[in-house]
Design goal:
Chain B: Keywords: Membrane, Transmembrane, Transmembrane helix. Chain A: GO terms for molecular function: glycosyltransferase activity; hydrolase activity, acting on carbon-nitrogen (but not peptide) bonds. Chain A: One of its GO terms (biological process) is carbohydrate metabolic process. Chain A: Keywords: Glycosyltransferase, Membrane, Transferase, Transmembrane, Transmembrane helix. The complex is a heterodimer of chains A (about 725) and B (about 110). Chain A is α/β, with parallel strands linked by helices and about 725 residues long. Chain A has an eight-stranded mixed β-sheet, sandwiched between helices. In chain A, strands 5, 6, 7, 10, 11 and 12 form a six-stranded parallel β-sheet that branches. Chain A has a four-stranded mixed β-sheet with strand order 4-3-9-8. In chain A, helix 8 packs across helix 9 and helix 16 crosses helix 22. The longest helix of chain A has about 55 residues. Chain B is mainly α and about 110 residues long. Chain B has a domain of about 35 residues. The N terminus of chain B is likely disordered. Classes of the chains: A alpha/beta (about 725), B mainly alpha (about 110).
């Protein structure tokens, strides 16, 4: 029962003979590349979403170098040449200017009011917003309005180095070109309101903008609409002195602009009645300012750069939105799961501990314990001894030696225990060994125990008590991690206690227990046979069998008092291998039983209720959970660090509360929980990667065979020491 | 004439038998045409040959076959190529974006 090539045995049956290929590097390179691209996309999203407040920051106090011409009212500054020139709006002429847009809601409304009164205006747009709504800018230009640059991310320009300032202007120009196929010479610095508030730093930035060919536009009248002071106040603020011309500042984005729209609808007709003319900045001053008359044809390079910026911002926004949505779903599901765990687990524990609780009459039927073993010499003796010495009235221990090469069978025979049988079968894998054990079992109740697991003396007796209920087909025992001396052992201990004490209670209540663990599980032999025995088509034969039992109508329950201690992987590499097999096997089992969704009877019940629930909480939620850590890092780098840290601590507290409940229900000391915060930083991420690895293997159809874990014999040694003690 | 055909001696034994007299010939029609020798038709682009399903072996479902496993490796190859292609395109686009922005900054530094 093995694959032979020539005279050499090369593999077991069931395992594929696969040519070793060196794909590891390529795969890891792809993973790193995807991570790199994702980080870049997130960085672009964060750059384009820089939070800003409307232009309400007053200037600094030091204004010694600001020319008098500006402070006396030269609101349009042309510093293109060596000589700086200042210009004012002609008398009775108003240039309406709108900052911080475009906004998909308010800009069209503003434009609508302007169109109603036949007025053109100047919109100083933020480049990032243009990237998001290029169509709005296109419409503005098409309807005769003028656009100016209000930087790409609306930063405090005076605090930026020259190259960043340059980038802010060029990027905005590029996206305007992409959106409307026009260039603009107009620029307005963020947070630079009236010329009277100009300080030296702002003036320096204004000079630099001029040297790059831009004309800076300040304002004569600030409507202060960003403060939403009321329609009348906005109109009053925007109104220039009698007979004067003015550049009027308003906002078409940055919050609710209902008052702005209403004020505009009142302001324009009132000023028209007073004989005022409305025009754009260029419309009023193109004759006197040469830069405003310059050729504005867009270059192809600008269109290409603008397109790249627009689409990268859109992609980044979409990615961030998708991640936020996933985060919300994950958060909601995690909360729901936690609430369900608390509710159902506590109720389950209370019911079991009540004085009136009983499975029925005591079960004293003889039991066959099947122990499949493959090269388990280090641990088998302790396991068999603990089983053979059980307090159940009649226990037959059946060790199925799966063609071990390390003398496992001889080790058991050396024990010379009267109720222990050793059967050697040709190597065929764990499922085949268990099937052989089932065929050779003398009794109708069978218990399957892993060869690295040591059970409590009364564990088998307690484990089979639920069979007093004739509807029960299988019972899951309470498996604990025996080797907890290392950090990795403690992490697994926490995971096992939570998994067994909360998850299994929940699953039992909802009648959808996904796995009776191979380490300790009891079955009715007839039920297993009716379910088709143990299949070799998945690597998680215990999960597959449990699902098959559900489909044949048997109840699967959890017996928390039947305790076994198993040897958990002691290195990260071993842990990775074990979990890779578990998660891949669980996916295989779910896929294998997917047709249950459409079936009738108990199979359909499990398929429509249990299977989606299990798939959601054991595969989908853990697969999406990395978004929590991703956003934790994203928040620490790009968002409010305090808020992010607070959110992460809340999540940790929820985990801690869950763990404390589980440990209390299992009467475990709370001391190992100090390793929980570290578990959230390392262990959880490894589990994500394992799950992603398994999902990738499942999708690609790659071959995966059973990987034998290395045993340290720590649990066996503890048992031996306890026995001699 | 009436003895079964299979019982007639063949080979050297037959030469010692007295030659039997021909008593008549069966009437046959004249050959009016010849069939062309069989030549398998060439495959035509866009037309799939009809498979002879009547004599094909039935593939039994292997219940022990590992779930998800694609022995041909085609699925994995396709997935891998698609992933690599997408990653390469993303990296190229990203590089172009950064390059375009770096050139703007470089112009300033210059």
């Amino acid at each position: 029962m093995a694959v032979w090539r020539g005279r050499r045995r090369v593999a077991d049956t069931g395992a594929l003979v696969v040519k070793p290929r060196r794909r590891g590097r390529g795969r890891w390179a792809a993973v790193f590349a995807v991570t790199f691209v994702l980080l870049n996309v997130l960085a672009i999203g964060a750059y384009a979403s820089s939070r800003f407040t409307p232009d309400n920051v007053e200037g600094g106090t030091d204004a010694a170098r600001v020319p008098a011409g500006v402070q006396e009212g030269g609101t349009i500054v042309d510093a293109a040449g060596s000589r700086v020139t200042f210009h004012r709006m002609p008398a009775r002429t108003i240039a309406l200017t709108f900052d911080d847009g475009p906004d998909p809601v308010w800009t069209p409304q503003v434009a609508q009011v302007l169109a109603k009164h036949g007025v053109a205006a100047t919109f100083f747009v933020v480049g990032a917003q243009v990237s998001r709504h290029p169509d709005v800018v296109h419409d503005l230009v098409r309807h005769g309005h003028e656009v100016g640059i209000h930087t790409f991310t609306h930063p405090q320009m005076t605090k930026l180095p020259a190259w960043r300032r340059r980038l802010e202007y060029v990027q905005t120009q590029d996206v305007i070109v992409y959106a409307a196929r026009v260039t603009t010479p107009l620029v307005r610095l963020p947070y630079s309101s009236g010329v009277d508030a100009l300080d030296d730093a702002t003036w320096s930035a204004t000079r630099q903008a001029g040297q790059w060919g831009f004309v800076s536009v300040f304002n004569d009248a600030d409507s202060r609409d960003w403060a939403r002071p009321g329609v009348a106040a906005i109109v009053r603020n925007a109104t220039p002195g009698p007979g004067e011309g003015a550049v009027v500042l308003m906002h078409d984005a940055g919050g609710d602009r209902t008052q702005t729209v209403a004020a505009l609808d009142r302001f324009i007709p009132e000023m028209k009645e007073r004989g005022y003319l409305f025009t754009t900045v260029s419309g009023a001053l193109s004759r006197s300012v040469p830069a405003l008359r310059a050729d504005r044809d867009a270059g192809r390079d600008q269109v290409v750069r603008g397109a790249m910026l627009v689409w990268s911002v859109k992609l980044a926004d979409g990615t961030v939105f998708a991640l936020w949505a996933t985060l919300l779903v994950v958060g909601a599901l995690t909360l729901l799961r936690t609430l369900m765990l608390f509710t159902f687990a506590i109720r389950h524990a209370r019911r079991r501990r009540s004085a009136s609780w009983s499975w029925g009459p005591p079960v004293t039927d003889p039991v066959t314990v099947i122990v499949p073993a493959y090269n388990e010499r280090t641990t088998i003796a302790a396991a068999v001894r603990s089983l053979a010495a059980g307090t159940h009235p009649a226990i037959e221990v059946l060790v199925i030696d799966d063609e071990s090469g390390d003398g496992t069978a001889e080790e058991v025979e050396r024990l010379r225990l009267p109720n222990v049988r050793v059967v050697r079968v040709p190597g065929g894998g764990k499922a085949a060994a268990l099937n052989a054990g089932l065929a050779l079992a003398s009794h109708d109740l069978v218990v399957m125990v892993d060869a690295d697991t040591v059970v409590d003396p009364d564990a088998i007796h307690r484990l089979v008590q639920p069979f007093a209920d004739p509807k029960v087909g299988a019972v899951a025992g309470n498996v604990k991690v025996g080797n907890r001396s290392t950090l990795i052992g403690r992490w697994q201990h926490i995971e096992y206690v939570i998994g067994f004490n909360l998850d299994r209670r929940l699953y039992e209540t909802l009648d959808c227990m996904p796995t009776v663990p191979g380490a300790l599980g009891a079955f009715r032999k007839g039920a297993v046979r009716a379910a088709g025995g143990l299949s070799r088509s998945t690597l998680a034969e215990d999960t597959d069998l449990t699902m098959a039992l559900h489909r044949t109508g048997w109840r699967v329950v959890y017996q928390e008092t039947a305790i076994a201690r198993t040897e958990a992987p002691s290195t990260l590499r071993q842990l990775w291998r074990q979990r890779y097999r578990w998660s891949y096997g669980t996916m295989q089992a779910m896929w294998r039983h997917r047709h249950a969704v459409l079936e009738r009877g108990p199979s359909g019940r499990f398929g429509r209720r249990g299977l989606p629930f299990v798939a959601l909480f054991t595969v989908v939620l853990p697969l999406c959970a990395p978004v929590l850590d991703l956003f934790a890092v994203y928040g620490l780098v790009f968002l409010d660090r305090t808020e992010t840290l607070f959110a992460w601590l809340v999540m940790l507290l929820v985990q801690l509360a869950t763990a404390v409940l589980a440990f209390r229900l299992d009467h475990e000391p709370l001391r190992p929980l100090w390793a929980l915060p570290l578990q959230q930083l390392v262990y959880r991420q490894i589990m994500y990667l394992v799950l992603v690895h398994s999902a990738a293997t499942a999708l690609s159809g790659g071959a995966m065979k059973w990987q034998k874990l290395r045993r340290t014999g720590e649990v066996a040694a503890q048992h031996a020491a306890a026995g001699t003690g | 004439m009436n003895e079964p055909r299979g019982s007639r001696p063949r080979g050297p034994e037959r030469q010692h038998q007295p030659r039997q007299k021909t008593v008549g010939r069966a009437p046959v029609n004249r050959v009016v045409a010849r069939a062309k020798p069989y030549r398998p038709s060439r495959p035509v682009r866009g037309v799939a040959p009809q498979p002879d399903v009547s004599t094909r072996l039935i593939q039994r479902l292997d219940v022990t076959a590992p779930v998800f496993l694609d022995r041909s490796g085609r699925r994995g190859r396709r997935l891998r190529r698609t992933t690599y292609w997408l990653v390469a395109v993303s990296l190229i686009m990203l590089a172009l974006l950064w390059l375009s922005q770096v050139l703007v900054v470089a112009w300033e530094i210059r």
